[in-house]
Design goal:
- By secondary structure, this protein is an alpha+beta fold.
- It is 26% helix and 30% strand.
- The strands form two sheets. A six-stranded mixed β-sheet has the order 1-2-3-4-6-5, sandwiched between helices. It has a two-stranded antiparallel ribbon with strand order 7-8.
- It starts with a helix and ends with a strand.
Length: 191
């Protein structure tokens, strides 16, 4: 149809083939189409979009869709994409759950003009997360205090270094293991 023809123009279309028979397809689009209202969610230049994804019913549940989806994600990542986006009908709860199992996360809910159902717009991050969480140590005290002070300031709370917040200056004693923990998040070695 016209919609499929428009979406595949300039996109990369992959098919699942066996002995000359096409069993599945996925369209990977590196260019958001500004004339399509759906594309407002995919405006970031690092976001590629999946359209027209499907596998014939008799092959479903055998991993072929996951293979097509993984291939599309790998191609996009290799080409420099930072994330993959797609949208699907919210009433299709099995399909939404499938995408979640494949690493996609819900980011928007929308009612398209052309649909009689609400859709979820989902994304998968293609850039590895370098953040880690570990136990806080005495060496983290200065950073922990600075972070908590910044959060307190943001929300207008009172900072009490000698009172309520004294535990932050000695997290190892205030939160003794193994019964209590104080965790910190790291990104690139910085708390």
């Amino acid at each position: 149809d016209e919609e499929t023809a428009r979406r595949v123009q300039g996109a990369r279309v992959f098919v699942l083939e066996d002995a000359g028979t096409l069993w599945g397809t996925i369209t990977l689009d590196p260019h958001a189409d500004s004339s399509d209202p759906r594309e407002r969610f995919y405006h970031d230049s690092g976001t590629w979009v999946i359209h027209q994804f499907g596998v014939r019913p008799e092959l479903r549940g055998q991993g072929w869709g996951s293979k097509l989806l993984a291939h599309a994600c790998a191609v996009a990542k290799e080409a420099g994409a930072t994330e993959i986006g797609l949208d699907t009908a919210m009433p299709a709860t099995d399909l939404v759950a499938y995408y979640r199992r494949q690493g996609f996360e819900h980011r928007h809910e929308v009612q398209w003009e052309s649909a009689n159902y609400r859709s979820t717009v989902m994304f998968q991050n293609l850039v590895p997360d370098k953040r880690v969480v570990r136990f806080a140590t005495a060496a983290d005290t200065e950073d922990v205090v600075a972070i908590v002070q910044a959060v307190y300031k943001e929300y207008g709370f009172t900072w009490e270094a000698d009172g309520y917040n004294a535990d932050l200056y000695d997290t190892e004693s205030a939160y003794p293991r193994p019964f209590s923990y104080f965790w910190v998040g790291l990104e690139g070695g910085k708390v």
